[in-house]
Write a structure and sequence with these properties.
The structure holds 2 protein chains of 2 kinds. Chain A is built from 6 helices and 8 strands; from the N terminus they run αβαβββααβαβββα. By secondary structure, chain A is α+β, with helices and mostly antiparallel strands. Chain A has one domain (18-248). In chain A, β6 and β7 (210-220) form a beta hairpin. In chain A, α3 (144-157) packs across α6 (241-248). The longest helix of chain A has 15 residues, at 18-32. The radius of gyration of chain A is 18 Å and the shape is globular. Chain A starts with 17 loop residues before the first helix and ends in a 7-residue tail after the last helix. By secondary structure, chain B is mainly beta. Chain B has 2 domains: 2-212, no CATH class; 251-420, no CATH class. In chain B, the strands form 6 sheets. In chain B, strands 2, 3, 4, 5, 7, 8, 9, 11, 13, 14 and 15 form an 11-stranded mixed beta sheet that branches. In chain B, strands 16, 17, 21, 22, 24 and 26 form a 6-stranded antiparallel beta sheet that branches. In chain B, strands 23-25-18-27 form a 4-stranded antiparallel beta sheet, with no helix packed on it. In chain B, 31% of the residues are buried. The chains are: A alpha+beta, B mainly beta. The A-B interface holds A 15-19, 21-23, 26, 48-56, 59, 73, 80, 82, 86-90, 118 and B 45, 50, 53-60, 92-95, 97, 135-136, 181, 183-184. β1 (48-54) of chain A pairs parallel with β3 (55-69) of chain B.
Chain lengths: 255, 421
């Protein structure tokens, strides 16, 4: 379990604004892969994190994270699960990231197949030597850090009244309706393959009086033996800030 | 330039030509009478691109509504005014986008009926009014007018009259031109958010228009002459040399029976009792018709000479000087223009007296046949129109024979020779 308020990554605190919706996975890529933010364009560097979002879950399943060497972009993919049929209330965000260790790797071996159709990607694991140092640590952070940041962001967004109304409390101090440390992240539920990662998964789980936020994760470093298009991938399922807030305030049941 | 020609017969084309003119005459009506614009469901792959956020949003493949209308007929050379509407399309966004103005930038494929795509045509539509696009709400754009050329100088295509132009949706870009959300709009259109929708699957014809003739597209005034001419426009000239050979005719004379004469070659002076003093008897020269169609500027003269009058008794004689002539010589009229080829007084059909050359002159009156008698002389004055001295002329003359007193009774004959030269 991570400290609920530890860390401060620029993870969007909302997915119902343009920046938050479109950039959720793109921003989450940065802490996941330990990206040296000094190398990002916004800090005077050359690299960018981007995203291709999919409306269709099936299309998202077919997609893969990738890099675009020409524009020096780490390209994540993203799909949002909603609680309503009109798709206006996000519940869960699935992200396909690149692993940090893959970013300085080169092209796929010759003859490797691509994903097919519009899901084809540039056939390279990373940026090659140009990506050296882009990741400051070859060991990715767990998906849990993103959920932890989301908890922090959501809790910080609550008004004092809302905090007193909250049913779950990520802090070590009791609130009016919640005992301390009743909103926590738990270690990633690691899966070994895409088919195991894809099925529906709860965004949050109520364990007694504690609301647990767990990510189903998939980590496939570029160094293992597998088809090239599957390598260098790090998948996370992440609670949507809006859904977490509604559960905290008792407006939605944990699920 | 690719030229597409109808395979129909020329006759069929002429028929259509007439139709086309009629249609052109009723153009204002036709522009209102658009082809039906029933909505068509077409599969599209749509992607929302937000350059400012370095992201794209694959909205997936879904059927979108396309409504298009074009005139049933379009005049050749004119653009087909295709009215094209796309969507509405669901934004797929879990948030509203206020103050948004979106325009359509459609591209359609153009082909001749049943053929391959010949070219594509794009247009930029007007932006709709500023509105709030609700969460996952529809994005609408005003209809776009696409002017589809039917004739492009230098290419890529000329659609021939009678051909049907088919219009197939290809791609539509919905571009945010304004938005209260700064991530969607930008002063530079290239940085604005767009939804690019690309048609999937087989071609779907959403509108068509048949090409008509029009006066403006009739063949241009290009005129080429094949020989010795000039080349237009305007018009051209060729030359045909009109040649006719007018070969010389004859100068001729024919006599026609006059008065009591028994025939054209006989003159009857009657009977007289031997007088006691010189006594005249009167007869008539058979009318001589001179026809001159030699075609030149040649004069002529008509003269007569006479032998002695000799009785049955060769000793009974009268000298030719006893006969006198007072000739007349007139240009022929349609009534007197006797046809030389006819032995009777048949006139030349269509004869025009104005074509007869002047300059004819009868000989003096009371000329004695003691010598050659001048009946008529024609000088070389030509007719002003024909340029020749030709014509038909009528020569007549009373003849007066003075029988001497106490002339021996007998039947006398003489031979008059009428000479034309």
């Amino acid at each position: 379990m991570l400290p609920a308020l530890a860390g401060a990554a620029p993870i969007p605190g909302t997915t119902t604004t343009s920046s938050g919706f479109f950039r959720f996975c793109a921003e989450a890529q940065i802490p996941i892969a330990n990206i040296d933010t000094a190398k990002l364009v916004e800090n005077g560097g050359e690299f960018t994190t981007g995203a291709t979002l999919y409306r269709s879950e099936a299309d998202f399943v077919s997609s893969k994270s990738s890099v675009v060497t020409a524009s020096k972009t780490i390209q994540t993919t993203q799909w949002t699960q909603y609680t309503d049929v009109n798709q206006t209330q996000p519940k869960l965000v699935r992200c396909k990231f690149r692993t940090g260790e893959s970013l300085d790797q080169g092209a796929w071996p010759n003859g490797e197949g691509n994903n097919g159709g519009r899901f084809d990607v540039e056939p390279t694991f990373g940026f090659g030597p140009a990506g050296a140092g882009l990741s400051t640590n070859a060991v990715d952070q767990p998906c849990e850090v993103i959920n932890a940041t989301t908890i922090s962001n959501v809790w910080a967004s609550l008004s004092p009244t809302e905090k007193n109304q909250a049913l779950y409390n990520p802090t070590g101090t009791a609130t009016a309706n919640a005992a301390p440390n009743t909103l926590v992240t738990i270690a990633d539920d690691m899966k070994a393959s895409g088919p195991a990662w894809t099925p529906p998964v709860p965004a949050v789980i109520l364990n007694g009086s504690v609301l647990e936020v767990q990510s189903r994760a998939l980590l496939v470093p570029s160094t293992i033996i597998n088809l090239a298009r599957f390598l260098g991938a790090h998948y996370c399922t992440l609670v949507a800030p809006e859904f977490l807030k509604r559960v905290i305030l008792g407006q939605a049941a944990p699920s | 330039m690719t030229a597409l020609f109808s395979r129909r017969s020329r006759r069929s084309q002429v028929s259509r030509l007439i139709l086309g003119v009629l249609v052109a005459a009723g153009f204002s009506t036709l522009t209102i009478a658009q082809a039906s614009a029933a909505p068509v469901s077409v599969p599209y792959l749509c992607t929302l691109n937000v350059p400012k956020l370095a992201v794209s949003y694959d909205l997936g493949i879904a059927n979108q509504t396309v409504t298009a209308s074009a005139p049933t007929f379009t005049t050749a050379g004119d653009a087909i005014p295709l009215t094209y509407s796309f969507g509405p399309i669901a934004s797929g966004l879990p948030f509203a986008v206020p103050g948004s103005q979106v325009r359509a930038e459609p591209t359609i494929d153009v082909r001749q009926q049943g053929g391959p795509t010949l070219f594509s045509q794009s247009a930029v539509g007007a932006a709709g009014p500023a509105t709030t696009i609700a969460a996952n709400g529809p994005i609408t754009t005003p209809p776009t007018l696409i002017a589809v050329p039917t004739s492009t100088p230098g290419g890529p295509v000329d659609f021939a009259p009678e051909s049907t132009v088919e219009l197939i949706p290809a791609q539509v870009v919905l571009r945010f031109v304004a938005s209260s959300d700064p991530n969607f709009a930008d002063a530079n259109p290239a940085n604005a958010a767009t939804i690019t929708c690309t048609r999937q699957g087989a071609d779907v014809v959403v509108a068509s228009s048949t090409i008509n003739y029009s006066l403006s597209t009739l063949p241009p005034d290009r005129c080429v002459a094949q020989f010795a001419g000039t080349t237009g426009p305007p018009g051209c000239n060729s030359v045909q040399v009109v040649r006719v050979a007018v070969t010389p005719g004859n100068l001729s004379q024919r006599a026609y029976t006059s008065g009591i004469n028994p025939g054209p070659n006989s003159i009857e002076l009657g009977t007289i009792t031997t007088p006691v003093k010189p006594t005249p008897v009167i007869g008539t020269l058979n009318e001589v018709v001179v026809t001159d169609h030699r075609g030149g500027t040649l004069g002529w003269s008509l003269t007569a000479t006479l032998s002695n009058f000799v009785g049955s008794n060769p000793l009974h004689l009268m000298g030719p000087w006893n006969l006198e002539s007072s000739p007349t010589c007139q240009p022929a009229t349609p009534a007197t223009a006797y046809d030389y080829d006819s032995p009777t007084t048949s006139t030349v059909p269509g004869f025009e007296s104005t074509s007869v050359a002047p300059g004819q002159a009868a000989g003096p009156s009371s000329q004695s046949f003691a010598s050659s008698v001048n009946l008529c002389t024609k000088d070389t004055t030509p007719n002003a129109t024909t340029g020749s001295t030709g014509g038909i002329y009528n020569i007549t003359s009373p003849l007066v024979l003075t029988v001497p007193g106490f002339q021996a009774a007998d039947v006398y004959t003489a031979v008059m020779t009428v000479k034309l030269v």
